[in-house]
Design brief:
The chain has one domain: Rossmann fold (3-Layer(aba) Sandwich), CATH 3.40.50. The strands form 2 sheets. A 3-stranded parallel sheet has the order 1-2-5. It has a two-stranded antiparallel sheet with strand order 3-4. About 40% of the residues lie in helices and about 15% in strands. It has about 130 residues and is of the alpha/beta class.
Length: about 130
């Protein structure tokens, strides 16, 4: 029998980034986070919270709290570099020393994919500040 792969051991530290917790996609992410937390992982969900007419559904946030899933608000809905890249930097400060990321993008989370890639040192880098 092959030796277990230590990179696949549970529990894990999992971070989901999505613009908002609403509708079917929000419900699916909440169910996934609940299951991961129940399996023993440390789970955090990062959402914008409220921006430009969109917001998390309170019932979705309540489910996260009941499951023991952490919730952090950072604006990944806004596409302007002056808003988006500071959110990327703030997320990086929340989890310093993260060795790698494994982004699993969906079309609605394109900015979050860029953020995940940037934190892992791959993909799109923030614009230089000269």
């Amino acid at each position: 029998m092959p030796a277990p792969d230590s990179a696949r051991k549970w529990p894990r530290r999992i971070v989901h980034v999505t613009p908002f917790l609403w509708s079917g996609a929000g419900g699916a992410l909440v169910r996934l986070a609940e299951a991961q937390r129940a399996a023993g992982s440390e789970v955090t969900v990062v959402t914008t919270g409220r921006s430009r007419g969109g917001s998390d559904w309170p019932a979705q946030r309540q489910r996260l709290r009941r499951a023991g899933v952490a919730h952090v608000r950072l604006d990944f809905f806004a596409r302007e570099p002056a808003v988006f890249w500071p959110s990327v930097e703030a997320l990086g400060r929340l989890w310093p020393g993260s060795a790698r990321t494994s982004p699993m993008p969906t079309p609605a989370s394109r900015p979050a994919r860029w953020q995940s890639a940037a934190i892992g040192g791959r993909g799109v880098a923030p614009p230089s500040r000269t």
